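Supplementary Methods, section 5.1.

A reviewer requested that the exact input to the structure prediction be made available. We therefore reproduce it here, unchanged from the version used in the analyses.
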Amino acid sequence: MRAGLIPLLSMLVALPALGGAALWRVYSPERARRVAVTVAALTLVLALGVLVLFQAGGAGMSGMSMVAILLATLLTLGLVAAGPRQMLDRGTLGALLLTESAALGFFCTQHLGLMLFFWVAMVLPAEVLISRRAKAQPEARALRTFRIYLLAGSLPLVAAVVLLGLPGWQSGAETPLGLSELLARGVPAPRQTAILALLMLAVAFRMAVVPFHSWLPVLLARGPFGAGLLMVNVHAGLYLLVRVAMPLLPEAWKAASPLLEGLGLFGALYGAVLALAQMDLRRTVGFLLVSQSGLMLAGLAERNTESIAGALLQSVAAAVPLTGLMLVVRAIEARTGTTDMTRLGGLVRRGPRMAALFFLLGVASLGFPGSMSFVGEDLLLHGILGAHPLVALPLLLTTAINGITFLRAFQRTFLGTPAHGQASVLDTVEDLLPRERIAALALCVLAFLGGILPGPLLRLREHEVSALAGPAASTGHAESGSHGPALASH
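The structure derived from this sequence is encoded token-by-token as follows.
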């Protein structure tokens, strides 16, 4: 790591935390929004500075960390800049900035104890915010669900960290929870299974993998704006698997891979079916996120170069357009007072830009040719087909169901005639404001630009992909120097 990188990383973590704390002294809603946007923009600039100084494979930093940092800062800026103003009071803005700070700390640190601290810190701002607002029944339900998730998703990780650090403490190691020292010391095979089970339980809750998913749709529908979306889309759970579970517990991971792959594919298909059954746009997006989490878990569990590269790419490919899609959904809610598809219809006449961006972001999230998700799903499919051809069927079925879900949502929301009794309300709807259009369009462009030029993003993490897949894995991606054979046709 270059000498200038450490202070830059410290500034990167501290800036949004200081900005979130400073908002408590800002009483004007408009000024609070300007402060939050400025802080989020400066944080993104710092992240780009880290990218400039970054050296792939350098000590203490990884390509996985770099991509996660860029994703967290980009999504936070989009949420605070383009979210509906009535949903972005200073409490919500502060919670978003504090969540961003905790996420960045999680991705920057190389100490497992600090990772645990930031893991818990990521969920605390939203929990505090919900607690203050939990007077109405929907908010009270969101609080109960979220608190259960907070405990269930954190206690197993605490236990796993204690088990991993215990040998180092007993031997008097200088940094018993340092990742490099843990890797050098290794974990005895008999203890790996129990530790992996604890880590997987924590990760399953954080990634909203079926059957530990129920908190996410509730939080997206009833919780504070952007908090649940940011926590899931920065993919801290996926990062924990790649940086801790897979390299530290290789024997246990190999033994558990068939079970985890089955769980991931089942969760992806189950989430897709639940998304199809929803009438609320917010819950629909929530279950699409659940479905994508299952696909990513299945890709990591397959343990070959293409499937791991596909899972890591899909973590970005789904997060970017689905965040943009939720921004459009919240814009619809702010204008109509509802996200119930049975009460909407015909919005394309009043909001053509809204309809166009909703459509483009939706198809980008579902693997339309030319999008980043298309490349990610193609790598996943190749990786799974190469090992277990029949197992790829749930993946194809999941993609098809998600496509039907999106087209149905678009038709009911934007096409046809307005719902009975809603025509007068829908006739007053305004199209997206400039700041909303810019943010949604920027996320849409990134989703398709990443599909046209996936090479730089793949190369940032090829070191992790090669190390996790092992020498026996297919060599296309890691040895290509570009996109690998699997991407040659894109």
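The chain is about 75% helix and 0% strand. These observations are discussed further in the main text.
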